[in-house]
Amino acid sequence: MSLATSNGFAVHNPPAFDFAGCAATQVVTALTGKFNGDSRTDLALVRQAPGWSTVPVALATR
After folding, report:
1. How far apart are CA 37 and CA 27, in angstroms?
2. Could you tell me the residue ranges of all domains in the chain?
3. Between the CA of residue 10 and those of 4, 16, 48, 51, 55, what are the distances in Å?
4. Cα–Cα dist 47/13, whole Å
5. What are the average pLDDT values for consecutive 10-residue runs of the chain, which has 62 residues?
6. Which residue, 14, 48, 50, 58, has fewest beta-carbon neighbours within 10 Å?
7. pLDDT of residue 56
8. 9-10 and 42-47 as β-strands: parallel, antiparallel, unpaired?
9. Helix/strand/coil (H/E/C) assignment for every residue in 1-62
10. Is 30 exposed, middle or buried (0-12, 13-18, 19+ CB in 10 A)?
11. pLDDT given for residue 47 in this prediction
């Protein structure tokens, strides 16, 4: 899992992934959920076309 940061989100693997750049891609859908059980709304990116082998997640810090 790749994790990113932006205004209240935690970075865990910053050199490996441009979360904001990938989120802006037309074939990517951003999903919200509470993925790590801390009651904060996190973001996941799901690619609707071949090309990724992971689902990048940004975990909320606020």
Report:
1. 28
2. 9-60
3. 6, 14, 25, 24, 16
4. 19
5. 55 66 91 92 92 86 84
6. 50
7. 86
8. unpaired
9. CCECCCCCEECCCHHHCCHHHHHCCCCEEEEEECCCCCCCCEEEEEECCCCCCCCCEEEECC
10. middle
11. 93
* Single-letter code of the amino acid located at 35: F
**How many Cα atoms are found within 13 Å in the side-chain-facing hemisphere of 14?**
5
Strand order in the sheet with 28-33: 9-10, 57-60, 42-47, 28-33
Angle at 27 between CA 24 and CA 31, to 5 degrees: 70
Instruction: Please report the pLDDT score of residue 5 as a whole number.
Output: 47
- The confidence score (pLDDT) of residue 12 equals 61
